[in-house]
Design brief:
heterodimer; A: mainly alpha; 17 helices; 2 strands; globular; B: alpha/beta; Elongation Factor Tu (Ef-tu), domain 3; Rossmann fold; Ubiquitin-like (UB roll); six-stranded antiparallel β-sheet; five-stranded parallel β-sheet; 9 helices
Chain lengths: 386, 364
């Protein structure tokens, strides 16, 4: 998949004229952009990026360290409370604190640090290649499946494996099969076991099951996942319960619930990033000679935001600003809120859509899509007319 | 606290059980956010005193945590600070008496024009500030028990390792004769001026000559040595200071046939990035881990590494995924997106969007 790509290519009008049939018709707004306008849009994005890059400093360092401190504090508090899980308030508080700490670790810290958002700090503890997170997915595999595949080829069908996670039918252009009648069931299972779904992502487990990918090819990845998972299980399901003595079963259940809370929350936020209504997907041909401007445009059209307050954004790892995250994946995520103001202005200037809404609206539309796409395409059920 | 309690604590904190309980971060990640001095493995130091002896230097007394293993007089340690959110480190000679295994150590930092860390420490060092430290390193050290007379030559802030040597010798029951030449611009620039005078007054066999190069004195000349030492070949000579001073002593020792008895410590001043024209393509790329050399052709470092037969990890090739991030150990690079130049020090860079400006060394 190593594609070489130069930063200054001549504009290719593939998005505009869409001769390769993007999987969803592009909106009239997009179609009206000339190649020059697309590059001008890209230049504006570059300018926003440069402004924030030039402004990075102590404020950003202090912010992420405060979040790390909060996460570590919540984890210590959560694990301490779950040692006394037989006291109902300690159990509830412990699950909440540990769940919150895992959410912070996975989202605002792990996901963002591993994007290289804080590499400029030259702090080995916040370095994208050195950070490891509290989830089943090994950090190195994540950096490939997510940073490379998903962020470079966002919403390109057949390349970006985040479209349906190789399990769900999340786009009309994915061919229907009777198995997708269970789409909602699969979605619920994926949400419940989301950390393992994410972990098996890079190993392309679905393609192993279907025989497309030999198991031997995925073996090193699966070994890495097993090693990571083993460590997680040892900590959450053996050592901390054992430390609680007779309270072991309660600690075990509390830890499982904290993991489950994290799984549902991360699933919810992440599925709102690319699957709400009106988010566009793209055909592989979009990638041919794609310019930087076109890449920016694809990121914008392929992502959706969720509106909310300060702590909602922090606990969603600022993935609630999915559009800004996809435009600027390696800038500190706590900057996305201020950047979104400028991005929206530029979108308005170019007449481009900016997909945002409340969590209720966005997740509601994701759930509706999960159910709707469980059924065969309506056109297939209608008699073919001339 | 009792050292044996602390070492037992360390044993517990670094045990496999604690590692499993704190996975995947490790125990330090739970300690540091609350107190950076609590690290179970890393050397850290807290500034206990700050003194400004001259108009462009700062002397700091630092108490390292329990991981500090002491030092030998003449060695240096890396000091790490955070400047506007970015970790920066530089090496500074220790000035206090060795071994300094327990208790505080001293550094004197001369503020260099354009020097990030020295300027930061000069301006902001204050009691309570926590610094990252390395263990002491360096070969510019006194023999364990000197039996031969010594000639110590210092220029400017090159006094710091020499000061450590003098303070260490001062604490010994008996010591060989010490002669010292100290070159400073004016009397006001002499770091440790008063203490030097007192030290040399205490020892009958020690003699000091301070030369004010901008106030009546001249730069180094062999006559300065000959006035203090009858036979250069009969003494162990240590020199620390500007390159010209060191080169002059190397030349003199060679002339007198006693280079083997000369030890020196160079300070490499940071190269200013402003003098490099980003549009001229020149220099060599050194990939140190794979021991390859390439002539810089101006393309991205990733392209050139691949052209040189290397297979560095890479992903998006457009600067977003950070798969290709690698350590630059020296040289200046230009960001292909913004055109900005990097500093010339050691740092992580994204090689897919960086091009070399002159010689660049990568840990690839």
């Amino acid at each position: 998949m190593a594609r070489s790509r130069s930063l200054t290519k001549t504009p290719n009008p593939s998005i505009r004229s869409a001769p390769q049939q993007p999987s969803k018709p592009l909106t009239a707004n997009t179609l009206s952009l000339t190649p020059a306008q697309i590059e001008a849009f890209g230049k504006e994005m570059d300018a926003i990026r440069e402004r924030v890059l030039g402004d990075l400093g102590q404020r950003d360092a202090d912010y992420i360290r405060d979040i790390v401190k909060l996460q570590r504090g919540l984890e210590i508090a959560g694990r301490a409370m779950l040692q006394f899980g037989w006291l109902p308030p300690a159990f509830v508080g412990g699950v909440a604190a540990l769940g919150a700490s895992k959410i912070l670790d996975n989202m605002e810290i792990g996901h963002n640090v591993m994007h290289g958002q804080y590499d400029w700090m030259q702090d080995p503890q916040l370095n994208s290649r050195k950070y490891d997170w509290d989830t089943a997915c090994p950090a190195d595999q994540w950096r490939h499946s997510h940073n490379v595949m998903h962020h470079t080829y966002t919403n390109v069908l057949g390349v970006d494996r985040d479209v349906g996670y190789g399990l769900l039918r999340m786009d009309e252009n994915q061919p229907w099969h009777p198995i997708f009648l269970a789409n909602p069931v699969f979605a619920f299972l994926l949400a419940s076991l989301f950390q393992y779904g994410v972990a098996l992502h890079d190993a392309e487990f679905d393609r192993i099951l279907s025989g497309e990918r030999p198991l031997s090819e995925a073996m090193p990845l699966l070994k890495g996942i097993w090693k990571k998972t083993r460590g997680q299980w040892l900590k959450d399901y053996a050592l901390f319960p054992l430390l609680a003595g007779p309270g072991a079963p309660i600690t075990f259940v509390g830890n499982a619930m904290a993991n489950l809370v994290r799984n549902y929350w991360t699933f919810t936020i992440i599925f709102c990033g690319h699957f709400p209504a009106d988010v566009q997907t793209f055909d592989k041909s979009t990638l041919a000679n794609e310019t930087r401007g076109q890449w920016y445009l694809r990121q914008l059209l392929g992502s959706a935001n969720i509106e909310g307050g300060k702590w909602f954004h922090i606990f969603s790892g600022n993935l609630s600003h999915q559009i800004e995250h996809h435009l600027f994946p390696d800038l500190p995520a706590h900057r996305y809120a201020e950047m979104s103001v400028e991005v929206r202005k530029v979108c308005e200037k170019f007449g481009l859509p900016y997909n945002t809404g409340s969590l209720r609206k966005q997740f509601g539309s994701v759930v509706a899509k999960i159910f709707k796409l469980a059924l065969p395409p309506r056109s297939a059920m209608l008699p073919v007319t001339a | 606290m009792n050292p044996s309690i602390l070492s037992n604590l360390d044993r517990v904190l670094t045990s496999p059980l604690v590692a499993a309980l704190t996975a995947p971060y490790g125990v330090d990640r739970f300690l540091e956010p609350f107190n950076p001095m609590w690290s179970a493995t890393q050397v850290r130091g807290r500034i206990e005193a700050v003194q400004r002896q001259t108009r462009d230097s700062v002397t700091i007394t630092v108490r390292p945590n329990r991981h500090w293993q002491g030092f030998v007089a003449g060695q240096y340690a890396r000091i790490e600070v955070e400047i506007d959110g970015v970790r920066r480190s530089r090496c500074y000679s220790l000035a206090s008496a060795a071994p300094g295994r327990d208790g505080a150590v001293e550094f004197t930092i001369k503020q260099q024009d354009g020097g990030l860390v020295s300027t930061f420490l000069y301006a902001y060092a204050q009691v309570g500030m926590v610094l990252g430290l390395s263990q002491a390193e360096g070969e510019f050290v006194l023999p364990e028990s000197p039996t031969t007379p010594l000639l110590l030559v210092a220029g400017g802030s090159g006094i710091t390792p020499v000061m450590s040597m003098l303070r260490t010798l001062d604490g010994r029951v008996s010591s060989a004769p010490v002669s010292m030449l100290y070159y400073v611009r004016t009397a006001a620039d002499a770091i440790y001026g008063d203490e030097l005078a007192a030290l040399f007054a205490r020892h009958a066999s020690w003699q000091l000559r301070v030369i004010h190069t901008r106030d009546g004195g001249s730069h180094f000349s062999p006559a300065h040595v000959d006035a203090l030492v009858a036979d250069l070949a009969a003494v162990d000579t240590y020199v620390c200071g500007p390159a010209a001073l060191i080169d002059a002593l190397i030349a003199l020792s060679a002339e007198r046939g006693c280079e083997a008895r000369l030890r020196h410590e160079r300070f490499t001043a940071p190269v200013s990035t402003a003098v490099i024209d980003p549009n001229t393509v020149s220099g060599e790329l050194r990939f140190i881990r794979s021991e390859r050399l390439a002539t810089n052709d101006g393309r991205s470092l990733l392209d050139q590494a691949e052209a040189a037969g290397l297979r560095p990890e890479a992903g998006c090739r457009m600067g977003i995924c950070h798969s290709c991030t690698c350590r630059k150990t020296s040289g200046v690079v230009r960001d292909l997106r913004s055109g900005k130049l990097s500093s010339d020090g050691e740092e992580d860079i994204q090689i897919c969007v960086s091009a070399a400006v002159g010689d660049v060394t990568l840990d690839l």
